[in-house]
Specification:
The chain is α/β, with parallel strands linked by helices and 280 residues long. The protein is built from eleven helices and 14 strands. The strands form five sheets. A six-stranded parallel beta sheet has the order 2-1-3-4-5-10, with helices on both faces. The longest helix is centred in the first third of the chain and has 22 residues. It is globular. It starts with a strand and ends with a helix. The model has no long low-confidence stretch (mean pLDDT 98).
Length: 280
């Protein structure tokens, strides 16, 4: 099997290529230098030359606050770029696995979101990722859409690295305590995606590490496990203030993974511990 992976310089794309390679699956990792997904001709040329059996599409415009002021650029990447890839996957009759996000939901309530729940994004980022989902659904039959949340990996910026860096220069750190979700380690997620892409169990899935916490609880656990002394103060979303609206409820049901015979990810606490060992 041969798989083309977009966004290889990002946290997830990096780990997906490593995981596939480790399994003896030929992985072709591309980023903007090799294939500009917003350029249909570039997408056509690169994918056809690679001749893969599947595309795992990890590349995205993920700067949630910046997206509010750069709607056009964000849409070009998340919606139009995804459509360009879906078009070639259809033409070549190959599988496509698209990485989406909890931001496609309204972020309200407390019940975990089911894969089939109605989408109601509240931010430009969420809206454009939802448009990417629609591009995949409306173009292909052989697709997987995997919604993820609160991602951290070795290769790139993330909440854990930000917290540890802030602790070097700050005695006190304010962290939001009214947004709930599940942290997701790209190393664990990559294993699931590698399993999934080798099947025909198409559809929409949710994938995060097991367990739920607030960002404040996550931060406290990071410092506890890293043995870092710092004063963490819980604040509300309103008090914290951010340009783009954030989901208060990012809990996502992973029952569909179990139903389709996929192994669920370990607990987020376990993932955090392994990640901290790796980066130290």
């Amino acid at each position: 099997m041969k798989v083309l992976v977009t966004g290889v310089k990002g946290q997830l794309g990096f780990d997906v290529v490593n995981e596939l390679t480790e399994r003896g699956i030929e992985a072709v990792g591309v980023d903007i230098d090799q294939m500009d997904i917003t350029d249909a001709a570039s997408v056509d040329k690169v994918i056809k030359e690679a001749g893969p059996d599947a595309v795992i599409h990890c590349a995205a415009y993920t700067a949630v606050d910046a997206a509010e002021e750069n709607e056009e650029s964000c849409r070009r990447v998340n919606a139009e770029g995804t459509q360009n890839i879906a078009n070639i996957c259809k033409e070549l009759d190959i599988k496509m696995l698209y990485i989406s996000t909890d931001y496609v939901f309204s972020g309200e309530g407390e019940r975990p979101w089911e894969p089939e729940d109605a989408c109601d994004p509240k931010s430009v980022y969420g809206q454009t990722k939802y448009e990417g989902e629609l591009a995949v659904k409306n173009t292909l039959d052989k697709y997987f859409i995997v919604r993820i949340a609160w991602v951290f990996g070795v290769n790139g910026k993330n909440f854990i690295k930000t917290m540890l860096n802030l602790a070097k220069t700050h005695d006190t750190i304010r962290v939001v305590n009214d947004q709930f979700g599940s942290p997701t380690y790209t190393y664990d997620l990559a294993k699931l995606l590698a399993d999934m892409v080798q099947t025909e169990k198409y559809g929409v899935y949710h994938a995060t590490n097991e367990g739920v916490c607030s960002w404040y609880e996550f931060a406290c656990e990071i410092f506890r496990k890293a043995k870092v002394q710092v004063n963490v103060i819980p604040v509300s979303t309103e008090e914290y203030g951010a340009k783009a609206p954030r989901p208060h409820n990012s809990r996502m049901s992973k029952e569909k993974l179990t139903e389709n015979g996929f192994e669920r990810l370990p607990s987020w606490q376990d993932a955090l511990e392994r990640f901290l060992k790796k980066i130290s």
